[in-house]
Design goal:
- The C terminus is likely disordered.
- The N and C termini lie far apart (41 Å).
- The protein has one domain.
- The chain has 203 residues and is an alpha/beta fold.
- It has six helices and seven strands; from the N terminus they run βαααβββαβββαα.
- A hairpin with a 4-residue loop joins strand 3 and strand 4.
Length: 203
Amino acid sequence: MQQPIRTLTLANISKIQSEFDSSLAMLGESIRGKTGISLLESLKREKVRVGPYPNVTLFEAANRIMSDLVILHGVAGLLKSKTFPFDEYIVEFGNEDNNGFDIRASSPTATLAGEAFNVAPSFFQGKKRTALKKLREKAGQATYKIIMFNADAPPANYMARHEPNIYHVAVHIPSGTIVVEPDNALKTLISLADPVETGLSTE
């Protein structure tokens, strides 16, 4: 990805989001007017040459960009709401794998590890299982473990079974709002910390 910054804070998140959104404006020009086999070949073979991933196909760019949008809007929501006691989050975009997890954060008293994805409802359960398995096996010592996903991914009437210290962050990309569950368990965990140090209200 052309975006060089991987540490997201309240001071830079809005600018990064704006630049990322602007970079998407010309996506799709490479398939304008194409249909049938020509369209399919362009989607799967032709480099887009624009946007945050100019050297991949539109098909691959779409997969990476949709996940990046979950991360950008989701982390922005966490920073603005102060859901967790961190002032910055280190993230990985696209298909990067430098830090072990898509999202990491740390402070003198707590750590966070998270996986993020953007999928259709039909793929939600499989991606969720993969993300949870990775967190269980490789993030055992993290204070907070999260899976972050697009809010329209869970199937209708979906009811999650929550595990201790694992939180689901649903991201509504158009509005930039997030929902964190289980909310009551999170408030209980945070209430055990020093509210002055975490910067979080315990009310």
